[in-house]
Structure formats: structure tokens, C-alpha cells
Amino acid sequence: MNAVKSRSYITVLLHLLLWMLFAFILLFYMPLTWSITVPPQFWIKQSFELALLIIIFYVNSYIFVPQLLMKNKSFLFLLIIVVLAALSSFLVKSLDDALNLPFLINQAFMKIGIPKLPKAGNKMDIFLIMMTFLVIGISTSVTLIQKWQANKQLQEALEKDRIGSELSFLKAQINPHFFFNTLNNIYALTHVDVEKSRNALHKLSRMMRYLLYDTQAGSTPLSKEVSFIVDYIELMKLRLNDTTKVTFEGPLINNDIQIAPMLFLPYIENAFKHGVSSTSSSVIAIELSMEEEILEMKVRNSVFNENAEIADNYGGIGLTNTKRRLDLLYPGKHTFSAGKTEDTNEFIVHLTLILDDTELYSGRR
To answer: Any idea where the Signal transduction histidine kinase internal region domain is (predicted)?
Structure first.
């Protein structure tokens, strides 16, 4: 809000400076260069010119440019501008003659010994025509720039909304089936190990609290994101048997480091979705490392022949969405690769982020 007010004040100030410059040219420059005492009629005529230029500036800015030029009616726009310049010149020249200003100016020059005859028969003020075209050019340029800035701000707002929508989508991806199955597993666990089931419930409640409250802003501490990932992995392991080996390595975390929430989860979800077999041995390895301002993530999971085609596509539209989210949040500050290795028959996702003080788009709606 303060930034918007500042821009408004700057715009008003620039307009005032512009009209002060034109007022100086029209009202004071010529008397100073002529070195004569101008008659009162001169001020009437020049004030009329200034008022006319102001009217032309804003009529062009608010009517002609948006209604004609921006709607591809360029010929009509140019025609109206030419007619307007000619009409303005004619009106000012008529006022000039009505005030008998050429004769009065000539008298003022003669008083200081400089004879100056008034122009005769010329009904057009060439100087005013040039000033009119200059004002229209400035008005058109300013209006087009403001329109471009407004479109840019609208695009940024749409991107913010898009990021917020995608974050909501990602949160929804931790679907009710996950919570339902986890609760069933915890319920079954209560008959075997009460203490372990309590820990699982605590992890689940902590995850839900993170989803509901800590992901509403545009960024979250990396420590909370890692804690969420750890809880997610531990709860997913409740569904697995001994044939699947899951490992996680996390970095030593500075709590002040901020990151976009829910950034790594889609890749970890896909690893559990495609990297688990009920009959064959499988591996899911998740690594997070931090070196200075570079955050690196690697997710590696086994690929089986029966779901090789699924693994090749690996996430489909979901992967496309997450890559677009990276492009919006970290433009030019990330690298991403994903693919299946032929020698080890594994799928590997590799993501690096440059974390600095650049403000992220807010996901707040």
C-alpha cells in the first residue's frame, strides 16, 4: 500500500513539474528574451494557451489513447490529433487578433527603439502547433507506459494467485487416502505398540498443523519443511514391509533460512508411489544438503519392469506443475533434472536452489 501511495505521489509531482516547465516557457521565457514590458493581453493569451494544452494532454490521455490508439484505430487517432492541433492554433490566433495583441506587442518594441511589424494574413500559430504535438506525444507516451506498468502488475498478481493455487493443490495432493491409511495403520499399531502409535499420532498432528498454518505465507523456515518431510517419511514407512529400504539425510539447518513451502514433497511422494514393490527389494533414498546459499536435493528410488512406463512419465502433469512453480518462485536460481538410469535401474530427481534474500511471491490469497 505504501509503495502504491509513493508511486501516486511521484506521478503527481512529475505532472506538476511538467506544467511548471510549460508555464515558464509560455508565460516568462518570451518576455525575458524580448526585454520588453508586455501588455496585460499577452498574459491572457498565454494563459489560454497553457489551459488549452493541459486540456489536450488529459483528453488525449483518458479518451483518445485508450479509446482509439489502444483499440487499433490508429488512423482515426492521427486524424483527430491533426484536426485538434489545427483547431487549437486557429482558436489561439483568433484570440490573438481579438485582443489586438500583435499591434500591442509592436508598440512595446517600438518604445525601446525596435520596430516590429505584426504578421498579417496568417491564421495558424506554428509555434502552438508544435507545442500541441509535443504535449500529445508526451501524453501518449506516459499513458502507454502506465498501461504497460498496469499490465505488468496485473501479470504479477496473476502469478501470485497461480502460485497460491498451486500450493493449495500441492497441499490437497496429500490426499485423504494418505490420512485414512495412516490412521488405520496407527489404529492397528495400538494393539501392538502403544508408545509407537502415540508417536505416530503426534507426527500426523504435527503435519496437519504445518499444512494448516505454516504454509499460508509465501515462505517457511527450512527447519520446519525438513521436519515435515521427516514426519511424512516416517508415516509412509508404516505401510512398508522389510523389502523396502528408506533412508533420509538432512542438512545442519540455520533456522533463519527461508524457503517456499511444500517444494520437495511432490518428488518424495512420487518416490514412494513408484519405488515400492511388495515382492522385490527396493530402495528410496532422499538427500538434502546445504552449502553456503546452495540447497541441494536428491531423491532416488528403484524402478521395476512392471511399472517402467509409469516411471518414465514420472508424475506427468504433476511434474510439469512443480517445474513451473520452480520457474515462478526461483527464476534463474535453480537447476532441475529427472530421469531413469540404465545401469542401476533407478529414477533420480536432482534439484538445486540458490537461497538468498530475494522476496518470494506470496502464496497468501
So the answer is: 166-242
